[in-house]
Amino acid sequence: MKKTTPVLSATNKGKMTMGVTRRNFIKFAAGGVAGIGLTPIPYKLMDDVAIWTQNWPWVPVPPTGEFDEVKSVCTLCPGGCGIQVRKVDERVVKIEGRTDYPVNPGGICPIGMGGLQLLYDKDLRFTGPMKRVGLRGSGKFQDISWETALKVVSDRIHALRQKGRPEALAVIDGNPKGSTMSAMIERLTTAVGSPNYVRMPDLEDTYWMGNILMQGNEGPMAYDLENADYILSFGSGLLEGWGAPGRVLNAWSLLREKAAKGKAKVVQVESRSSNTASKADQWVASRPGTDAALALGLAHVIINSRIYNRNFVENHTFGFDKFKALVLDGYSPETVSGLTGVPAETIRALAKEFIGAKAPLAVYGKGKGTLNGSLYEFMAVQSLNALAGNINRPGGIIISDPLPLAPLPDLTLDAIAQKGLKKPRLDQAGTRKYPVAESLAANLMDVINRGHASPVDTLIVFSANPAHTLPNSRVVRKALEKIPFIVSFSAYRDETSNMADIILPDHIYLEKTEDVVCPPGLQYPLFGLTKPVVSPVYNTRHSGDIIIRLAARISPSTGSAFPWKNYEEVLRTRAKGLFESGEGLVTYDKSRPAWKWHQHLVRDFSTFSDMWEKIKSGGLWYRPVQPCGNRERVFHTPTNKFEFFCTQIELAVNESAQKTSLTTALKDLGIGVKGEEAFMPHYEKMNSGTAGYPLTLVPYEIINLASGNVPSPPFLYKTIFDDQLLGNDSFVAVNPETASEYRLEQGDPIVIESPAGAITARVNLSQGAMPGIVYMPMGFGHTAYDEFIRGKGVNPNDIIDAGKDPLSGQPAWWATPVKITKV
């Protein structure tokens, strides 16, 4: 098919070649198909886009050519939305949401829509393997061959093994949990003989830990938003990119349709008037860090009024009597009101509304979910779902079987690896100090900084940018400075890569095949698969293929751990489990949405080859939501029930108390309560109002900027409001009452200081900000990437003095004591 298609083509330094007409750009920047009515971005664009389009540093040239459309999956966040990519000849010119994909029929977020900018901008990407030639962090590199790069890295790891120090290798992985890339990265680390495989923290970690402790299930949380009729969201940025953004935007539209008929309600609990809060049916302004107290206050009303689901509680839960005593004794509406700032009558009304709905759903999260949440907060919110009895029923929490991927073959470890794996983890995850944690990236940095020399000799980083995205990022950069040798597999010129010694650049998502395993929050198992829509633009390689080559060079033992020719063979190995399950669909029927509860559906493929080719073509295997099974088979805790009283926490604490007292053990775990209260959901007082730091800094995420390991498409900076970023200055939202105490006016420059450091920003007076709180947007403050991103605003992570979330050990990033000074 041939059409004359205008394309924006770069003429300045070969950078930022786009395929977006002026009309499409405005549509793109406004938030995509499903989000356009849910975002105020269009009103911002009306103000300045006309001027900006006359002054960008490259000239539109409209060539013609044959166009094609390729279906794939977006992996710029874990959401895994289906995308349709338009090309003119071999140039990508447009990305939009797929209507034939179950996760996000037609929906797409601004970042997903702007992804084509990440493909062609050589100032954002590494163009080939490189070695550092300047000071660490300077970003000065020299091109080298792939052969040389692989030899340098493999020789380094080989030498560690020969010295009997394989544990001196540490690996940081930012890929989604459960993905094939993560499985391969962890496998390589284990085959080398290092116990120091570390994942970047995110909300899925909190879900994973809470799910195991209360329900006994390993896997992500699944929220049946589409079938709920009462959403009680505790901080989840439903319109800020939480979960799979395209899916959530569509679910929001469904909820709005039902709400218009009086059949649904959305309540947002959050201290700031976010986009989600302002568009919800009700905004409940609760003080930062008090979500657990509010949830338990609602539980008090529900239990005291005896309006909980008695059938579920009496037959499918453990420890209710102790939980009941705890809640009735310590969380009355009046007590909770004093903690949260929410009126007692509002607490009573919310509790009765929630429990009285046909399909109520309490959702937990902080912002997009890029960073972890609080474990005890999650447990408190989840207790509301148990009181409603809405676990494994339409509109509730769905516990489905794990995605039936085939496991990779068992490893045969040599003596060097076996000895190294007996050494303790450097981050202390899984030890008596952090018994329920699986991985603690921030703690690894603390450990490196404690000694004179780094215990890590070689650090390899995959799909992560800890130097910018981890809380207290100055501490992170200090730790990275101490590590003798750093290897980055990043496709992008990010802050962490700028500190690396060797760059082994990955393809970006439009150039490669990779899997998407169970997008966060999705209520049915799904295996997605991206497709290369263009040949690699630069001299990059698939990280999965490089792992296989690297393993073969390190030693015969590590090489034997990867018997596959390439990454796609590994994918095929895992996908055989999908076929052997005897279930699933590989094509999506739009007339039968995946979120509707179906009877058993007959699979639409015959042989494994048939299934695999269809997955490669359509990008998915999924099993639509099935009717609920027997609840006795749902929970896999030690009691085989939902546990209000968590026996696994009790066991972990008692083990820690064997060499000391229970009080000391709880203190060592960071738990602030006494006795059996520690084994149940409870409120932990946050560290705020420290002497000399009377205010609280709360960072927040926005849907049109990336806050993880990928850069924001430069176009998106023109969708940022002037009260968030103006020129190169970040703005912080401050309530006028607080501003008057410090004699501040709109636009005044201030210094915001915490025990971790200080940054400068400008004041935005906002009635939607809670008094005493300073709100700062995330996604700014980059010192890397290109001229359109670098130097824009400041990074709140630079001054977040993150303590440890009790029990989980993850960074408590959501409330930092600060003081402000007018410049």
Can you describe this structure?
The chain is 31% helix and 16% strand. The protein has 823 residues and is α/β, with parallel strands linked by helices. The protein has 4 domains: 119 residues, Single Sheet (N-terminal domain of TfIIb), CATH 2.20.25.90; 285 residues, Rossmann fold (3-Layer(aba) Sandwich); 176 residues, Dimethylsulfoxide Reductase, domain 2; 128 residues, Barwin-like endoglucanases. The longest helix has 17 residues.
State the CATH topology of the largest domain.
Rossmann fold
CATH architecture of the largest domain: 3-Layer(aba) Sandwich
Cα(first) to Cα(last) distance is 61 Å
Mean pLDDT: 91
Largest sheet descriptor = 7 strands, mixed
Low-confidence spans: 1-37
> What is the helix content?
25-40%
Q: How many structural domains? A: 4
Rg, Å, rounded: 26 Å
Secondary-structure-based class equals alpha/beta
Task: Kindly summarize this structure in a few lines.
By secondary structure, this protein is α/β, with parallel strands linked by helices. The chain is built from 27 helices and 29 strands.
Features:
single chain, 823 residues, alpha/beta, N-terminal domain of TfIIb, Rossmann fold, Dimethylsulfoxide Reductase, domain 2, 4 domains, 7-stranded mixed β-sheet, 6-stranded mixed β-barrel, globular, disordered N terminus
Topology:
Layout: E1 2-3, H1 22-29, H2 32-35, H3 41-52, E2 65-73, E3 82-88, E4 91-97, H4 110-113, H5 117-120, E5 130-132, E6 141-143, H6 146-162, E7 169-173, H7 180-192, E8 197-199, H8 203-215, E9 230-236, H9 245-260, E10 265-269, H10 275-279, E11 282-284, H11 291-304, H12 310-316, E12 317-318, H13 320-330, H14 333-340, H15 344-356, E13 360-367, H16 375-388, H17 415-421, H18 441-450, E14 458-462, H19 466-469, H20 473-482, E15 485-488, E16 502-503, E17 515-517, E18 526-529, H21 543-554, H22 556-560, H23 567-580, H24 608-618, E19 620-622, E20 642-643, H25 647-656, H26 662-668, E21 695-700, E22 725-726, E23 729-734, H27 736-741, E24 749-754, E25 757-765, E26 773-777, E27 803-804, E28 811-812, E29 816-822
Parallel strand pairs: 7-8, 7-14, 9-10, 9-13, 10-11, 12-20, 14-15, 15-16, 21-26, 23-25
Antiparallel strand pairs: 1-2, 2-3, 3-4, 5-6, 5-16, 17-18, 18-19, 21-29, 22-23, 23-26, 24-25, 24-29, 27-28
Helix pairs in contact: 6-21, 7-21, 8-16, 11-14, 11-15, 11-16, 14-15, 18-20
